[in-house]
Amino acid sequence: MDDRAAAVAHLRAADEVLAGIIDRIGELPTDEDEAESRGRPSDHYGALVRSIVGQQLSTKAARAIYLRLCDRFGGRTPTPEEVLADDPEELRAAAGLSRMKVSFLRSLAEHVQDGSIELDRIAELSDDDVIAELTAVKGIGEWSAHMYLMFHLRRPDVLAWGDLGVRRAVQLAYGLEEAPLRVELTEIAEPWRPYRTLACRYLWESLDATPVDAD
Description:
By secondary structure, the protein is mostly helical. It is 61% helix and 0% strand.
């Protein structure tokens, strides 16, 4: 049995409500197909740049803006040095970014440049340590850190407790009066360990929705 099949089998056995969702939805796209469809870069820094660019935007809009940003730098993600050397207003206008997002990109570049985020070892860190490093960057909150863990580092046991889509899906599936807050959602999700990432993906799919930025 492969890892995905083992995870699905565990979730089915652990939670009958989630089992019903899995039966209804069937097989999810692979991680590789999902990353390609959203145009996520494969390198650690590029994925963070793409995450900042895409905050609070549809997948289509985020991809278009990210491509415009890359076009300014010869069709690739700008390096931290290039971001900091560029004129913020010119960068904003060329890529169609807000001033706030330009400031976020500059904060990320500064943290990478001064070694506050060591991207060459980030894949070796625990989930909690990754979150701590990323959320020190202006504009990267816990929601964005969770998405980075789930979709870039592909960590299997991340609960996106702040995601509005996950909370809404749980409210509907479990017949709750309100969308659960962190403590209640964590309790509901306890049986899903160590595959909470896949459970969240099924919950998103149950709404026919993508992750909803809560940063």
